Amino acid sequence: MDDRLFRNAMGKFATGVTVITTEVDGEAHGMTANAFMSVSLDPKLVVISIGEKAKMLEKINQSGTFAVNILAAEQQEVSMLFAGQIKEKRETEFDRIQDVPVIKDALANIVCKVYSKQAAGDHTLFIGEVQDIVLREGAPLTFFAGKYGEITERQPV
Predict the structure, then answer these.
(1) What ranges do the domains of the chain cover?
(2) pLDDT tens digits, 42-57
(3) Distance separating alpha carbons of residues 17 and 19, to the nearest angstrom
(4) Among 64, 94, 111, 117, which one is least packed by beta carbons within 10 Å?
(5) Which residue, among 91, 40, 34, 102, has the nearest Cα to 66 in the 3D structure?
(6) What is the pTM (predicted TM-score) of this model?
(7) Of residues 29, 78, 73, the one with CA closest to residue 50
(8) Which of 153, 151, 148, 7 is nearest to 78 (CA)?
(9) φ, ψ for residue 134 (rounded to 5)?
């Protein structure tokens, strides 16, 4: 099967946009990702998928913690920055929850400690046990067929 066909098919699944953050040796690191889902209520677990070539893989292995930051509609530039789509150097100011860096003004900051990990093809799945959550109101940033978007509020039928 052709790689492009597979990628195009996966792009037909509309997702939210997250930035995964962690800290190693006093330095915050982040990467944009849409491979995220909840796993369990008891214990409260989520999973993220990190490519074997991503710098974030070793950072999470070193720190043992990460945060999933669900981006708001107005945070497309934040996503682009952590996806490497903005090449100019920019300073990013982080908030902190339980000493883990998080993205300011995200719809949700979900702080996790690594519960387990599993190699899967060219990615590693990190299952995180949720330690803390901060929520904000707003509309989510979305991604579909290779493009950013947002959900508009539907009127009752």
Answers:
(1) 3-146
(2) 999 999 999 999 999 9
(3) 7
(4) 64
(5) 102
(6) 0.92
(7) 29
(8) 148
(9) -125, 130
